[in-house]
Amino acid sequence: MSLSLLITYILIGVLAGIFGSILGLGGGMIVTPILVLAFNLPIHYAIAASIIAVIGTSSGASVAYLRDDLLNVRVAMFLEIFTTIGALIGAVLVGIFQPAWLNAFFGLLLVYQGYAMWQKIHNKKADELASKDDKIAAKLKLDSSYYNKLEQKNVSYHIQRVPLGALIMFGAGFASGLLGIGSGGFKVFAMDSVMQMPLKPSSATSNFMMGVTAAASAVIYFFNGTLQPLIVAPIAIGIIFGSTLGSRIMPHLPNKLLRTIFIPVVLIAGIQLIIKAFGINLY
Amino acid sequence: MADKQEITNERKIENGIGWILRVGVFFAVIVMSVGVILLLLHGNTGYGKNIPTDLDPLIAGLISGKAAAWLMMGIFILILTPTIRVFASIFAFLAAKDFLYVGITTLVFIILLFAAFIGLQG
Asked: Where are the transmembrane segments (chain A) (predicted)?
């Protein structure tokens, strides 16, 4: 392998790591299309590489998010029950289900999420928080606070609508198990829009959770030889540096900017799933 | 409102989990980087096209300085990190005497083991 190719892989990783850690999406969404379109790698090798990218982003970024107290460990652990059960059931049902209508369904959901985010940008009350306690959230000790670096103040928040959030998390796990898509978008949506957790803790917590969901399938890819170490390892090294960098930038970015980057990303992912339902693969 | 004791417990849990992640990521990067350096020095993977995926030959490959073995083991450490994080969280919550979350975390860990078992069977 040439030195220039090696450096290219590392740089792809750095880019995916920064992007994935800032949005809470994991960074797999960048790695797969680049490897397929620019490097002509078969799709299953690219997906395996992107799973490792997700794990790298998750672990690399969470170090800083834990230290900054941005991440809500209890929310993550509680919701991981539902994502892991969803992923397990999804993975078992692969091959039994016709995924066409499911692709369309999850695609539409992502497009709706883009719309919801767009509404939030134009709504001045978007970052207003729930003021009342929720019974279930109180019982599970989910309420917490984080330090807002932009406004330099501590923000306490109350988690709402836990059952609906848990249901969406189950769906997110199910989608990643069955369709092999990274489901960070749904995770951020469940926490930010449904459970009324502020955007940055939602994104950081989504990032943290993604590593666990991805690890289960990564083990399988490792032992069945789908991981190409010459490609995956340099990307992973880059990812870890990128996500460490991204997790230091994110607390300083305004919410509006984060949402503005988020919208085209979920829209593209959604539209791609919808046209896949009609049998068209972009890559 | 959380009292002081709860806040300290919270920090302890977060520090413990953060430490696990940092160690996992650190070793993964070091081992993969050794692989990259060996690759540049030798100009080959040490295996040709057929890179093993079982742990025994990979460990043997580490000792004999085969580049691909170091790359694969680094990736393996990275993959294990989130699962070890869940396992270690059980003890972090136990130390904080938060038994509800000891239960929740144990449940997640069991589901993960079950998923890995099913995955490796299929």
From this structure: 7-31, 43-66, 73-94, 100-118, 162-184, 204-223, 230-249, 261-282
**Radius of gyration, alpha carbons of chain A:** 18
**pLDDT tens digit string along A100-122?**
777 788 788 888 878 877 887 88
- Residue of B112, B117, B118, B120 to mutate, testing the A interface (most A Cβ within 10 Å of its Cβ): B112
In a domain, residue A116? The reply is yes
For chain A, positions 195-254, list CB contacts with chain B under 8 A. 211-212, 214-220, 222-225, 227, 229-230, 232-234, 236-237, 240
Task: Report yes or no on A282 lying in a domain.
Answer: no
ipTM for the predicted complex: 0.90
Provide the 10 A C-beta neighbour count for residue A96: 7
Q: What is the dihedral of CA A207, A192, A276, A95, to 10 degrees?
A: 70
What is the tens place of the pLDDT at every residue in A186-241? 888 889 888 999 989 999 999 999 998 888 778 878 888 888 999 999 999 999 99
The reply to whether residue A59 touches residue B54, judged by beta carbons under 8 angstroms, is no
In a domain, A46, yes or no: yes
Find, among A230, A207, A227, A204, the residue nearest to A217 by Cα. A227
Q: Which residues does A73 contact at the CB level (< 8 Å), separation at least 6?
A: A66, A208, B13, B14, B17, B89
CB-based burial label for A90 (10 Å; 0-12, 13-18, 19+): buried
How far apart (Å, rounded) are the C-alpha atoms in residues A122 and A257? 12
Rounded-to-integer distance, Cα A274 and Cα B104, Å: 35
* Ramachandran area for residue A253 (φ above 0: left; ψ -120 to 50: alpha; else beta): beta
Residues A88, A89, A90, A94, CA torsion sign: positive
Chain Cα centroid distance, residue A198: 16
Helix (H) or strand (E) run with residue A147 in it: strand A144-148
Contacts of A96 (CB under 8 A, 6+ apart): none
Instruction: Annotate A199-257 with three-state secondary structure.
Output: HHHHHHHHHHHHHHHHHHHHHHHHHCCCCCHHHHHHHHHHHHHHHHHHHHHHHHCCHHH
According to DSSP, residue A154 is labeled E
